[in-house]
Design a protein that fits this description.
By secondary structure, this protein is an alpha/beta fold. It is built from 11 helices and 14 strands. The longest helix is centred in the middle third of the chain and has 36 residues. The structure holds adenosine-5'-triphosphate (ATP) and magnesium ion.
Length: about 375
């Protein structure tokens, strides 16, 4: 699936911009403040209905304006075109439309490529709390094995139900045996989710190590799944039962995949705790590349990669290798401020920003 055009009318500083995009690598080149990140954000918003920069979509509305609106044209493998439109308005809230009509999230997701963003803000994935990494890993699971895409939600629901009952019991209402049925449901959901996460990390470890090496992360870089509860549903049920009294004292579920960690390390040390900024960046990129490789390998749709400002901190040789790795499959948008930081083969498709004339097209 390819995004063939994006129209921001308007979004942040992009007032009336249409950019056509080709397959492969597209380089967006322009000075600071030219609207490069805004454009990536616009595209992301059109596809997902969300921003990767802010949780308040109204930030996307141009200063002094009342509406932000972006449309993306997506072309599938059979050449069928679909239009996704996302908008947010001060008066009417937000909308996300497929070919002009409202659609549920699953339908919207089926009609667009998966999209992955690398930006300085996303370093939180490496240096932030484990919840971010769990959510990220679960998104990969969903892209890799669509039949497993509900596991995260299912576990979350079972956990919420058990927690509600635990809180109630902790408050002295009801008998602890009422938990039996919820524990069984939670154990089932937990076992399936932990198994999927383990399978995902198993697939990602080799390509991660390889990409990390290419990006110059010295020392052997590795990702490791550290489950809080693993094993069969029956084994997890035993664990839950053993911890029941403790949970009732705490008033919540203290054990299970909602506490899992995805450890990212170099030379055996956690990059979250000890990594430099540059090492954390390299690890994040390596993880995103590993996911892309795994999806390509499994013949799943590779994600559209939005790489914001990734060239600036790489030396020329690493830039070259990065472009080599990305060339040839899927679609990749790379922003940069200087022409010189774009390796030759990434110059085939260049968009120069800011776009002065409306309806300017990619070179
Ligand atoms: N809601 C908004 N309405 C209008 N302009 C906005 C809005 N939000 C941000 N801007 C403006 O958009 C411009 C920044 O655009 P953007 O972040 O896309 O730049 P950039 O090309 O990525 O720059 P850099 O190379 O520094 O990352 C700034 O001038 C900023 O003031
Ligand atoms: Mg930027």
């Amino acid at each position: 699936m390819l995004v063939t055009a994006v129209e921001a009318r308007p979004l942040r500083s992009l007032v009336d911009v249409r950019i056509e995009l080709g397959a492969g690598i597209v380089s967006l080149i322009g000075p600071n403040g030219a609207g490069k990140t805004n454009f990536l954000e616009a595209l992301y918003f059109a596809l997902t209905g969300r921003s990767f920069r802010t949780s308040d979509r109204r930030d996307l509305i141009p200063f002094g304006g009342s509406l932000a609106r972006v449309e993306a044209v997506v072309c599938d493998a059979d050449g069928v075109e679909r239009r996704l439109l996302a908008s947010v308005s001060r008066a009417e809230g937000r909308r996300h439309l497929l070919d002009g009509s409202p659609a549920d999230p699953a339908t919207l997701a089926r009609n667009r490529p998966p999209v992955v963003v690398f930006s300085p803000d996303r370093l939180a994935l490496v240096k932030g709390p484990p919840a971010e990494r769990r959510a990220h890993l679960d998104r990969f699971v969903a892209a890799r094995w669509p039949s497993r895409s509900e596991l995260r939600r299912r576990y979350g629901q079972a956990l919420a139900q058990r927690n509600a009952l635990v809180a109630q019991l902790a408050g002295g209402l009801g008998a602890a045996t009422e938990l039996d049925v919820w524990d069984a449901a939670l154990a089932e959901a937990a076992a399936a989710l932990a198994e999927a996460r383990a399978a995902a990390v198993e697939e990602l470890s080799a390509p991660f190590a390889e990409a990390a090496g290419e990006l110059g992360l010295e020392g052997r870089a590795a990702i490791e799944y550290v489950p809080r509860a693993a094993g069969s549903a029956a084994e997890i049920l035993v664990g839950l039962t053993e911890r029941r009294d403790a949970d009732l004292r705490l008033g919540r579920t203290s054990w299970g995949p909602h506490l899992d960690e995805l450890k990212i390390a170099s030379a055996g040390r956690s990059l979250r705790r000890y990594g430099s900024q540059g090492q954390q960046r390299a690890a994040l990129l390596a993880l995103l590349f590993a996911e892309r490789d795994a999806l390509l390998e499994a013949r799943r749709a590779p994600p559209l990669l939005l790489l914001d400002d990734v060239m600036s901190e790489l030396d020329p040789e690493r830039r070259e290798r990065l472009v080599e790795r990305l060339d040839g499959a899927g679609q990749v948008l790379i922003t940069t401020t200087t022409e010189e930081s774009v390796p030759g083969r990434a110059k085939r498709s260049v968009v120069r920003m800011p776009i002065a004339v409306p309806h300017a097209a990619a070179a």
